[in-house]
# Entry
Amino acid sequence: MTRRFKIVVLLIFSLLGVLFIFNHRYPFLTPKSEGWSIGFMKTNDPLKKLVPSKLNILKKETLKNITNGNTRFIADPFLYFENNDFYIFFENQEIQGPAKIGLFHSSDGQNFTFVGNVIEESFHLSFPQVFEYRDKKYILPESASIDNVVLYKAVEFPKRWEISDTLLTNIKLKDPAILISDSLNLIVGIDDKYNQRIFKSDSLFGDWEEDFSFKIKIGNEIRPAGNFFSVDGQWFLPFQNNTEGYGTGVSLYSLNSDRFEKFIENQLYKSDTIKWFDRGMHHLSINPLNKEYYLVYDGDEAHDDEIDITFISSIKYNLGDLYNYLFR
# Structure
C-alpha cells in the first residue's frame, strides 16, 4: 500500500466522518411542507418549554373551506387584545397572488371567526406585528419584496389600514421584529443574504440607523420568530430554529446590552402527536393578558410522500455554528 493511497483513504474517511457529523446535526433530507396552520393557548409561565395545544387550532383546511378553496396556508400570527376582543392578524397565503394580511376575531379567546383580508397589496405581506404607539394602532409587516420596511396605521380598526411611513429603504428585511419602549427602540430582521441586521432609533418615526455595536451570530437562530416581550424588566425575542429543516422550532433569546443570548433552545418544537404541527413550528407571539400570557403560534404539516434536499443549508448551518463558537 503506497503512501499516496493511504493519504487518499484517510481523506475519504475524514470527509465521510465530517458528512456524518454534519448530517447528524442538520439532516441532509427533511420532510416537505404541506402548509402552515395557527394555534393558540394560555400559560402562566412564558419562560419555559411549551407544548402546543391539541384543541386550539385554526386549521388551513378550515379556512380553505370558508374561502371556497382559495387558501394555501396561514402563518405568522400576532395577537392584539382590546375591550375583551381577541384579534389575530396573520399571513394569509391564497392559492394565487402574493400573501395578504388576514384577520381572525374572537370575543372569548376560544372561538374565532375569519373576518377577511384587512391589508391587500400587489406585493407579498407577512409577519404582521401589531402594536400601539401614542394612542394609535400600527402594523409593521414584512414587505421585503419591495425593498422597504413599511408601517401601516389603522384608519378604522381592525379592518382599514393605510401606509403611514417607510421606516427603512433599500433593504429586503425579512420578519422585522420591532421593540418600542421608553429606553430602547430596535428593529431586528435578516436581509436577503441571510445576514442579521439590527437598527436603532430614538422613536418610531425617528431616523432608523444600523447598530453595529451588537455582537451578531450567523447561520441558525438569527431570524425573528415573533414579537419582543418583557418579563420582570427583561426583554425576550424568539428566533427560528432550523435544525431539521426550515421552521423546525422556535428558540427563545434574552436581550442583554450588546447581544441576544440563548435562553431556551426549541422552546416551541414540532409535535409528533399533532398532525398540523408535525413538520415544524416557526413562529411564537407571547402576549401578557390578565395576569397570564396568551400565545399564538404556527406549525407546519409534513407532506407524507415528498422530501426536501437540505444538503447546502446543512453545511451552511454547521459552518455557522463553528464560526459562532470560535468568534462569538
In short: The chain has one domain: 22-327. Residues 201 and 207 are 6 Å apart (CA to CA). The first helix runs from residue 3 to 25. The chain has three helices and 20 strands.
